[in-house]
Amino acid sequence: MNQRHRLAVEDWIEFEDERHQVVATDGALVRLRSITGHRITIMLSELLTDPSFRAFAEPPPEADAKDVGLDPGGVLATVAPAARQAALDLEAHLWEATTGYRSGDPMKAQAGEPRPQYHPDMKKTERILAKAAELGVSDRWLWKLLDRWDEQGLFALVDGRKARVRNPLRNVEPRVIQAIREQSAAERLDSSSTVTTRFLRRTQNRLDADYGTGEVPLPKEDTFRRIVRLLLTHRPSDPAYQRQSGANQPDRTFGNVIAHRPGQVVMLDSTPLDVLAWDATTNSTEGLELTIALDLATRSILAWRLTPVGTKAIDIGLLLADVMTPEPMRPAWDDALRYSMLRVPYERMLTLDERLAQAAARPVIYPETLLFDHGKPYQSDVVRRACRSWKIDIQDARKLKPTDKPHVERLFGTIREQFSMHVAGYKGFSVATRGRTVEEQARWSVDEIAEFFAEYVVAVYQQKSHSGLHLHGFPDLEVSPNEAYAMALGSAGFVDCPRDPNLYYELLPIAGKGRVIHPYGVELNHLVYNAEVLYQFRNAKSPYPNELWPIRYDPRNLLHAYFHNPRDQKWYTLRWTHALSDLQPFTDITLREAKRLLAQRGQDPSKPELIAQALRDLQNRTDAPETWTKGTRKRWSRDRHRAHTQAVDALRSTPAVPAPPPAPPAPAPPTRKPTIPGLHAVPNLPIEDDDLDLDAIQPAAVWNPHSAQEN
């Protein structure tokens, strides 16, 4: 049954995990203002149907300094020692006036107690009069002090001047405080500025717009700077990344993600790696991006991908395959890093997965649930299809809420401290921390850094004790991710991971909804692909529901496409018809660049021969160093690296039937030259090599001018 809500101006609601006040309504639109000062306008229907909407929220407490109360125990713990001792001495006088003993306990009587004027047999009124005379105060004041002491305890005896409520914003106009908070929230994504220039001007403009020009003036610059320092945790003058990170921090804890067995929750995320890679061919540097898969239960790094900046959906899809594939041992690694050195039933597991024989000491886990953010590569059809094929659940983190996956966010900091800082070419995590000669220090290529990172994961991270992992029953004993994995196998068991021989091809994206096989081949992105296997399916309707043939391609190498033959259940490689032997592998980004150049020249970017020529022009620039630009260097390095990665990923599955390379053009047949003077040469006369006898050739006559003179 639908629930009915009535919203009025000044009502408080919950929306997107934050409290908002309704400040205006206009038909189907609602104007909201959050407690941080952020203003939004939203359609009423969208607001009421949003899952995070809650009506009748509690208003925020009013910050009135006069009503602020202090914790008595907190006051006694924080006042100066002299003020505390004075309160204790006064309490001893009150105990003596009421009981006759300064401690209040006859069993702890001091020497000379009780004194005659405070003997317990005397009336309380007489003892109060005697104490007032001793302290030099009136008995009326002492009676009032006794009443407060009975109600508040020792706190009533503390000097009020020492326990005064400190509120430095007591005399500040509340509308000024609200305007500062609202303006700070509005500028959380802006560049940094000084407090007393742009921020002061914009705050005054906000007050003028809300209450009228000059109605609420701001204080002087020094006072305004002091107010901003007291109100805001991240001020406008702080670095922009600090303010943006602080704005994303939630105002409450919504719960912790807990996993009890390996693979129950696997977190995925990407971040720029703080290391520059060096390309020896182009003598240039480029940034890298690191994608990580972290198992929450054991804190193990299950898989990783190092790519040039700009992770694609195909990288995420194949990262899932890396999670379920053992990490191979490198020849230079020590035998202590082998999978067999883990404290697991290795012999039994080897009968289930023979790939573990040559594997490194990194867990191999079948994930149950993936947790990642709303990045475009993670929301692609490639990732969704892979998860559906492997029966893996998907859980999205909320937008702009990195605290939903804090473990993998913290892991990036650990990688920076333990790995990135120690690699030549470390550039820092921001411009403020970047060195001056980073490009000159970079000396490792992308593949070399990837190998270093693999060794770091297996030899360091998986072996090092983790503060978030503990031995069962011993909360003070920390264990490493590998030890946590071994303990988890004892309680949850080992789940064998799927090993599909066609894994690589099934993860590749399909071109649209399918393609028609024409007599000249199939067309993808205005590129024609062909192979001998397509002849038997030309102009034939496919058995698929849409009567089209699914053609898969790898965006990292568009020289080839892949076709699944339903008759022999094999994958076949389709080759681009205009791909000559001198054309290097290229990515979809390079293809778009070639089409853009064609459009700038006024040519048709849909003609395959023009695209081939434009691609060849782009790649020929890398052969002329004097024409290299920064964009050309990055494009060439990116295509070369991704083509290499594509070839490595293709080795996961059974190799596809290769397409024969195009036949080189036949050379023109040589012509026979005349051997007798005066005989005219016959153009393009072919030489019959089979009938040619070199010994039967008669030498040509040579003209001798001397013999002519003699005649």
TrEMBL record:
Pro residues composition bias: residue spans: 657-672
Annotated Basic residues bias: 631-644
An individual GO BP term: DNA integration
Residues in Integrase catalytic domain copies: 258-489
An example molecular function term from Gene Ontology annotations: nucleic acid binding
Entries under PROSITE patterns matching the protein: INTEGRASE
Region (Disordered): 101-120, 621-687
Protein name (database record): Transposase
Species this chain originates from: Kitasatospora phosalacinea
